[in-house]
Amino acid sequence: MEAGKSLRIGVIGGAGWLGGAIAAAVLDAGIADPRDLGLSYRSTRPDRFPDAFWTADNQALADRSDVIVLSVRPADWASLEVDAEGKLVVSVMAGIRLSALCERHRTRKAVRTLPNAAAEVRKSYTPWIASSNLNEEDRAVVRAIFDACGIQDEVRSETEIDYLTGLTGSGPAFPALLAEAMMADAIAHGLDHRVARRAVNTLLVGAGRLLEQRDDCPTETVRTFLDYRGTTAAAIEEMMVAGFGEAVARGMTAAFKKSVSMGETS
Questions:
Q1: Cα separation of 57 and 9, whole Å?
Q2: List of residues 6+ apart from 82 with CB closer than 8 A
Q3: Low-confidence ranges of the chain (pLDDT < 70)
Q4: If you ran DSSP here, which 8-state letter would residue 133 be given?
Q5: Cβ neighbours, 10 Å, residue 154
Q6: Integer Cα distance of 233 and 74 in angstroms
Q7: pLDDT confidence of residue 6
Q8: CA distances (Å), 77 to each of 81, 147, 201, 209, 253, in order?
Q9: Tell me, what's the pLDDT at 5?
Q10: Backbone angles phi, psi at 101, to 5 degrees
């Protein structure tokens, strides 16, 4: 970008949940002026971002943008015909390869990213990888966008992105799965549904806050409780015997394979 020139960002799929979360983060961080933010929708224009440019024409959005964020489902991307020659294209879709992005959108500058649901509260972890034609200025734009959504890391390969699709791309889904199982057990033991929900939700929020502030390795936290030899150690040991670690590893493998297959069919 030229010095003093406002960055024009277009979000294809800006009416969707993730696209809207990224747009809100970009505006809050001052990365783009509302008038330089463009968003597309399929049928009904949302009420949010009243000063932004809204359109149902994805090519019109791309034409007025310097950076084009593709926030659509991989299945819908198959029919998305947008010429982005000379533009920076940033995909938040799982599975779609850099080479496919460059070929479909006629650009040499593509970025593959994977933010998660926590972008809405600016706590997403976003890994990303770029095609070889990006310069440092382009990379700075990518870092700024996803720093606004939480924390970002440029990784070394698309294989790492495929793996992280399961590990971090699923966002709150895995903690929520644990919470669901704990809440169901609490209710089965006679706790009121409201009490069980508040207890489990507060537990997870507190655990996340503790890990964030202490920045400890999770292994150290688990070891501390195991060494104490109390009720938590008894629970952890029984969960491990029941195959907790194996179940998680199988889930990560399934997500990795799914990400790879999505790219192959694109």
A1: 15
A2: 12, 58, 59, 62, 68, 105
A3: 1-5, 265-266
A4: T
A5: 15
A6: 42
A7: 74
A8: 8, 25, 35, 36, 25
A9: 61
A10: -65, -45
Kindly provide the residue ranges of all beta strands, DSSP E only, lying in the chain, ordered along the sequence. Answer: 9-12, 37-40, 53-55, 67-70, 88-91, 110-113, 124-130, 150-154
Give the whole-angstrom CA distance, residue 262 versus residue 96.
7
List C-alpha distances in Å: 160 to 138, 164, 165, 216, 247: 21, 6, 9, 23, 21
Contact 158, 93 (CB under 8 A): no
For tokens 């049928």, name the residue.
Answer: 43
Question: What fold does the segment set 9-161 form as a domain?
Answer: Rossmann fold (3.40.50)
| Rounded Cα distance, 166 and 261, in Å | 13
Span(s) in the chain for CATH 3.40.50.720? 9-161
Interior angle at CA 212, CA 209 and CA 214, nearest 5 = 105
pTM strictly above 0.85: yes
What's the CA gap between 230 and 219, in Å, rounded?
Answer: 17
What CATH superfamily is the domain 173-265? ProC C-terminal domain-like (1.10.3730.10)
